[in-house]
Amino acid sequence: MDDSLQTDLSREWCAAIDMFRAYLTTERTLSEHTVSAYMNDVTAFAAHVGGAPGIVAPTAIRHYLGHLVERGLSRRTMARKMSALRAFYRAQARSAEAPGSPAAAVRAPRLGNRLPTFLYVEEMFHLLAAPDVATPLGMRDLALLEFLYASGCRIAECVALEAADIRLDAGAVRVIGKGNRERIVLYGAAAQSALRSYLERARPVLAGRDENALFVNSRGTRLTDRSVRRMIDRYVQQAAIGKHATPHTFRHSFATHMLEGGADLRVVQELLGHQSLSSTQIYTHTATEHLLRVYEAAHPRA
Predict the structure, then answer these.
(1) Backbone φ and ψ of 297, nearest 5°
(2) Any catalytic annotation for residue 243?
(3) Cα 6 to Cα 95: distance, rounded to the nearest angstrom
(4) CATH class for domain 3-105?
C-alpha cells in the first residue's frame, strides 16, 4: 500500500490489505486490473469504517451500502464492492484467530438482467471494412479486429500474445485467460488472411528489433488495451454505426453470432473460457431477442 494510505488507516487494516493483495496475486492469480479494483474497493471501505478489520459488524457494511446509495452508485457497482469485501473476509478467515465474515450476513443488491451490447453481422462487417489496408497500421488494425471477432478473446489476452504464438496454418492459438488458465482459441480464414498480411508485410515495418509482441504500435512496442479502445472508437465513428463499441463488444458479438448460427452452448462456453455455464447463458437471451425481431419482421401473422 502507498504511504499516503497507511497514514489514513490503522496498522491492522494496512497489514490485512497487504495480505489480501498477496492472496489475490499469488493464490488466486487474478489479473492486475482485477487486483487493483479489489484493492481500491476494500481500501475505500476501510477508510469509511475505520477501526480494525476484526471488529467490523454486518451493520457497518449495511451502513456503508447506504452511504453508496446516497452517493448515487449503481447496483452493479455496489455488487462489485460487496464481492470484493466477501473475497477480503474469505482471505481473512484463513487465519485461525480471524472471526467469521461479517460480509456473509449482508445480501448484495439484486441486479437486473442487463444484456450485453453486440453488433449485428452487417454492422460488424461494415466495421471490419473500415481500416485502410494500404498502410502498415491499417493492416495491423484489420488483423487485430478480425482476430478479436473470430476468436472471442478478451482484449488483455489478445495484446499479451507473442508473434511466435501464431501458427497461421493451424487456425488456433493458445492464450492465457483469467486466473492464469490456458485455453485454445480458434480463428477462421478471414482472420488468417489478415494476420498473414500483417505478419509478412506490416509488422516487420512497425516492430522494434527486440519486440516480441504480436500486435505493436507505431513506436514499435507492444500495443496496449487502451490504444485498442481508442482505435475501435475511431473506426466506429468512421463507419457511422451509431453504437458504442469496445473490445468486449467483439467478444459479445462473437458469442451471439455463434449461438445464432447454431453453435452448442457448451462449445461457446469453452471458446470464451467461462468456468460457469451461467456466464455463457446470458447470450442465449440476446440470441432469442434477435430471433424474435426477425420473426416479427418476417411472419405475416406476427
Answers:
(1) -80, -25
(2) no
(3) 22
(4) mainly alpha
What is the structure's pLDDT at 133?
96
Entry pTM: 0.67
**Distance from first CA to last CA of the chain, Å, rounded?**
60
Segment 94-122, tens digit of pLDDT? 764 455 678 776 776 665 556 678 899 99
Which of 75, 86, 274, 290 is the catalytic position?
A: 274
Is-catalytic flag, 48? no
Region 254-281: mean pLDDT is: 85
The per-residue pLDDT for range 284-295, each reduced to its tens digit, is 777 777 777 777
Task: Enumerate residues 6+ apart whose C-beta is below 8 A from 293.
Answer: none
- 121-298: CATH, from 3.60.40.10, 3.40.50.300, 1.10.443.10, 3.30.930.10: 1.10.443.10
Burial class (CB in 10 A: 0-12, 13-18, 19+), 28: middle
Examine the residue annotation and report whether 274 is marked as an active-site residue of this protein: yes
Q: Is 154 a catalytic residue?
A: yes
Query: Could you tell me how many residues make up the chain?
Result: 302
